[in-house]
Target: DUF1877 family protein
Amino acid sequence: MSLLGDLIRLSPELRDEIRSDPATAYDRVTTFDQPERLELDWEWKLFGPLFTIAGFRVNPFRSGVLFPDEQTAFGAHGDARCLDPAQVAEAATQLERTPFAALAPHLRDALVERDTLRVDYDYDYESPTYGQPLPPERIVTPTFPDEQIESYRTRLADPYADLTTFYRTAAHHGECTIFWAA
Model:
């Protein structure tokens, strides 16, 4: 299953207004259009672990608070996240100061983190172990040839530039961001 990631930028006031009605929050944020929205394909799945491995204090995909709240966070895994303006500014600074070339050496580790099978999803929904952590002997850790790493490096450079611009703009306007995957 492929999950696409979306980011929007919005004022703190609009974020609070949307958050105040969790039943309509998903519908409201998915109606945002360009330039307030950045649609990512699979890239967010690598950027999240890549930023963690690289030591980003604010990770645009993993930091922040659940949105609209802990009980009603939407997204494919119920993990929509919101960054406040100070966090957005920190993320923007980190992105601006970190050229993608500096992150590229961490790609292999990010791919391993992303693709290591640690949970039982063997499609036997009736199994008592379905969705449970795998025992160590069943964890599957992939390997990636250098050519594949180079291909990812090439394919991630432009989305990284887009993400940097998106956060620079949000920080300049004192905005919040919301990320979700669907």
